[in-house]
Amino acid sequence: MPEPILQVRNLTVHFYTYAGIVKAIEKVSFDVYKGETFALVGETGCGKSVTSRALTQLIESPGRIVEGQVLYYRDDGSVVDLLKLSEEEIRKIRGNEIAYIFQDPHASLDPLYTVGHQIAEAMEVHGKISNIKEGIQKAIQILKSVLIPDPERRVKNYPHELSGGMKQRVVIGIGVSNNPRILIADEPTTALDVTVQAQILELLDKMKREYNATIILITHNLGVVAETADRVAVMYAGKIVEIGSVDQIFKNPLHPYTQGLLKAVPNPMTKIEKLEAIPGTVPNLINPPSGCRFHPRCPKAMEVCKQKVPELKEIEPGHFVACHLY
Ligand SMILES: Nc1ncnc2c1ncn2[C@@H]1O[C@H](COP(=O)(O)OP(=O)(O)OP(=O)(O)O)[C@@H](O)[C@H]1O
Ligand code: NI
ipTM of this model? Predict the structure, then answer.
């Protein structure tokens, strides 16, 4: 039996804007197992980043976590609900046991400090080193492990002296500097060109093996999912519509939305090359559609889909779908 490291239950985040309440994510539930790469996929605006940030209470005003539990299984076997922790308690875990790698290295790195200083600082915040000097020595080791050539020299570089790919490696270095148990990578390769993307994904995999971490990978790139993930959750308009192993999702997609997504891209598993966009547009989350949020775009919609929110049901072992067809 796979051991859970996270159990997310009914996670709901709303943004209180002048235009109205944006129901960004609604009763999102999933498990993440120890040592796996768990991918969160879906179109832009479906709630992937909000979900991943909410896991450690990283939601800023006007957003609020209005409901849910994030059960975190610690190394010592104890379980804690991350949403119940105080700001001080969660800050000890965030960036330490649970670390983030964000999409944009420009936003993640401070232009005023050397990369060595920034890696050292990330460790110092969590008491992993006693001074910045010791940190710089460790930073050189980290730069080496993220495959940056000539780390003794690079450690003294400022971000602008590095290429986009190198900067993203530094961001990954900061992410793994405290040896996190969970690494949350939000579109870690989107800003990079294709060859560098492949190198960064390979690097993430290496980090996972070396540091024995669990990875939550957020992406809208299904090719990346097929290549790097063990399991996948598909999101649509703030809800999870399907969860399964990579094989289950790619070879036997159950939800009409997942089926549409796979048709919309060259399917990396079945080598379908025909591109087909899903008709219609992503709904407004201030007034989301009633019942199943996908029903206005669904080719298989039935009367019940307009009225009743479908629950996630296990159709075959480990394969869950929220759809009235099943
Ligand atoms: N600060 C905010 N104020 C209002 N609405 C917000 C805010 N942040 C996020 N949202 C809304 O929450 C929803 C989910 O956004 P989120 O960033 O999680 O999407 P995503 O799936 O990560 O998209 P992308 O692939 O573009 O990164 C969107 O509808 C977005 O408009
Ligand atoms: Ni996002």
Answer: 0.98
Measured by CA distance, the residue closest to atom 2 of ligand 1 is: 15
Same domain, 83 and 224: yes
How far is residue 10 from each of residues 14, 130, 214, measured CA to CA in Å? 13, 40, 22
Residues 6+ apart with CB under 8 A from 79: 71, 72, 73
> What is the pTM assigned to this prediction?
0.93
Atom number, ligand 1, closest to the C-alpha of residue 50: 18
Task: Classify residue 326: in a domain, yes or no.
Answer: no
Residues 143 and 246 in one domain: no
Task: Give 84-92 contacts, CB < 8 A, sequence gap 24+.
Answer: 85/57, 87/57, 90/56, 90/57, 92/126
17 and 85 in a common domain: yes
Nearest CA to ligand 1 atom 29: 45
Percent of the chain with pLDDT strictly greater than 90: 72
Give the ligand whose atoms come closest to the C-alpha of residue 53: 1
